[in-house]
Amino acid sequence: MASSILPGKTRKNCVRSISLPARFHSSTLRIEEELNKLKAWETTTTASHGNVEMIHSGLSGLKDLYDCVEDVLQLPLTQQQAHNYSDEKLVDEVLDGSVGLLDVCDTTRNILMQMKENGRDLQYGLRRRGTGAESTMESKVDAYICCRKKLRKEMLKCIGLLKRMESKFIGSSYPLLLDQNNHLVVVVVRVLREVSSITISVFRSLLSFLSAPSSSKPKTSSRWSLVSKLLHQKGQITSFNGKHHQDDDINIDNEVESVDVAIHNLSSCRKNRTSTLEVAQKRLNALEVSIEGLEDGLESMFKCLIKTRVSLLNNFSVCQSRDLIIRIR
């Protein structure tokens, strides 16, 4: 269970209890419920390494959470206290966190789009028949692998950024001083810290799923050696000796990684490629469907993040403008 975000439960040094308006209290309770669901999801995902269905579930849960957050931000009392809030450092923390998550979400959307286009281009090469089909397939596979490596570097950069953001939230010791004049804003800041933390977790799971970590296998002289670099476990690739794996021989939950394995199988089997070709096409089709589903979920999240940022800017813009005028004077 997540720690409570409501005042009186987390601040032992509160001199007196501060009651919350009924509607505000109800909204924050719903946020706590959604946070607890996502924390349970986080535990399950960590234990099972995640698959596309679990990532979908995480994105869907995030959308529900942000809908609840938006309800709180739109409350008149929240807006009134936010307009009068004078703690510039906390305001900057809130606004910087929102734009950081928005940037990562947008980058991930672009990565998904490129992955889908890259997969479709490879499918075209695998469907090619007749003169030049072999060279076309090899060039398309090479292009697919190069794109995968480039996108994986981008994903690892995003994961690194999310880790730094997470460390910043965890390491934040800036106090949230509670009094009758700012108690709603303080609760909102607590909420946003928790929400940002779980958002980082979901995005990291998504990017880890898409990046399908590379193997530490040494380089070989084969033009296909780049494929094996993208595989997750050494034990998944064995010597073929002129044979190929059937589709059911390897059970991989990660659709991205399963395509890497299928391509390796295809490139390693120089004769009788019909079966391995069908497997590769089947897995590429499955990956495209998965990517489209993730695109839908991420598009919804992007809209939620934009809406939240607009609400934050509207709520805190007055106090920021006032502080700027004071500094100029």
From TrEMBL:
Q: Which GO terms describe its biological process?
A: root development; shoot system development
What Pfam families does this protein's entry cite? Answer: BPS1
Superkingdom of the source?
A: Eukaryota
> Which ranges form a coiled coil?
none
The name this protein goes by in its record: DUF241 domain-containing protein
